[in-house]
Write a structure and sequence with these properties.
single chain, mainly beta, six-stranded mixed beta sheet, four-stranded antiparallel beta sheet
C-alpha cells in the first residue's frame, strides 16, 4: 500500500522558518516526481513545489526564492524548507506523487501569525 505522511507544521511568526517532511512508503521517491501542495481555508488545493526523479525543481511564483524542495532517498522522504514565511502561507500542506498520486494524507497545518 502506497502512503505518504506529512509532518513538521506548526505556528510560526511572519519571517520565520519551518521544514516539512513527507515520509513515503510502498513506492520509492527517488524514482518518482514528488510534489508539495497546500490548501488554505475556503480555497482550492494548489501546487507549491515539485521535484523530478532527476532532481529538477519547480516552484509556484508565490513561494519562489523562499521555499526549497529536496529529497532524502535513503529515508524515502521529501522535504519542504520554508523560509521568510508570510501570513498568506497559512494552509494545510500535503505531499504526493505527481504521476499516479496515492490517497491524500492528513496533511500538516502551517499557521503564520504574530
Amino acid at each position: 500500500q502506497v502512503q505518504v505522511v506529512e509532518s513538521g507544521g506548526g505556528l510560526v511568526q511572519p519571517g520565520g522558518s519551518l521544514r516539512l517532511s513527507c515520509a513515503a512508503s510502498g513506492r520509492l521517491v527517488t524514482l518518482n516526481a514528488m510534489g508539495w501542495y497546500r490548501q488554505a481555508p475556503g480555497k482550492q488545493r494548489e501546487s507549491v513545489a515539485g521535484i523530478t526523479s532527476l532532481d529538477m525543481t519547480i516552484y509556484a511564483d508565490s513561494v519562489k526564492g523562499r521555499f526549497t524542495i529536496s529529497r532524502d532517498n535513503a529515508k524515502n522522504t521529501v522535504y519542504l524548507q520554508m523560509n521568510s514565511l508570510k501570513p498568506e502561507d497559512t494552509a494545510v500542506y500535503y505531499c504526493n506523487f505527481i504521476s499516479n498520486p496515492t490517497s491524500w494524507g492528513q496533511g500538516t497545518q502551517v499557521t503564520v501569525s504574530s
